[in-house]
Amino acid sequence: MKLVELGYEPERWDEDVARARARGRGVAVGRVAADFGVEHRVVGSFGEERATLTGKLRFGGTSRPAVGDFVLLTGSPGSRTLTAVLPRKSSLTRQAAGKKVAAQLIAANLDVVFVVTSFNEDFNFNRLERYLTAVWESGAAPFVLLNKMDLAEDPDARVAEVEPI
């Protein structure tokens, strides 16, 4: 798979990649597809592989990679290390759980986010509004998918309630 098919923008990141390669820091570029804590599933022109984080990314003050990030990798196939996160063009965040006031990164470099909500008794207008606000603030375009409309008592009324937002 070519990096541009994954959303890579050469004009945005090629200088960063060239500088990293000149320092010997990165030999491959990939995009994070899944976050397992210390390990990440990364896809790129090399295919799909797992990569472990460097200590600096794991414990340092630098930004940890999130799903959607473009990253630099060292090592050989089957033994890759994620060494750096390329600058983000957007990020989707939420309020972190607990009492501390902090943002929790959900995903990065998104163009479109599908917000799926059930129209049955679990429907919550305020929650849908919060999700849409977070998506708009990230810079991505939200699409609302209304699920289980056949279980709603009055689906037309619910659609009329959601349409304005």
What does this structure look like?
There is one protein chain. The protein has 4 helices and 9 strands, in the order H-E-E-E-H-E-E-E-E-E-H-E-H. It is α+β, with helices and mostly antiparallel strands and 165 residues long. The protein has a 5-stranded mixed β-barrel with strand order 1-2-3-5-4. It has a two-stranded antiparallel sheet with strand order 6-7. A two-stranded parallel sheet has the order 8-9. It is elongated.
Query: Which quaternary structure do these chains form?
Result: single chain
- Rough shape? elongated
Q: Strand percentage, roughly?
A: 35-45%
Radius of gyration, CA atoms, in whole angstroms: 19 Å
- The pLDDT mean sits at 84
- Order of adjacent strands in the largest pleated sheet: 1-2-3-5-4
Question: Main β-sheet, in a few words?
Answer: 5 strands, mixed, barrel
How many individual β-strands? 9
Helix content: 10-25%
SSE run = HEEEHEEEEEHEH
How far is the N terminus from the C terminus?
A: 37 Å
The chain-level structural class is alpha+beta
How many helices? The count is: 4
Low-confidence stretches: none
How are the secondary structure elements laid out?
Blueprint: H1 10-22, E1 28-35, E2 39-44, E3 47-53, H2 55-59, E4 70-76, E5 79-85, E6 91-95, E7 103-108, E8 112-118, H3 125-138, E9 141-147, H4 155-162
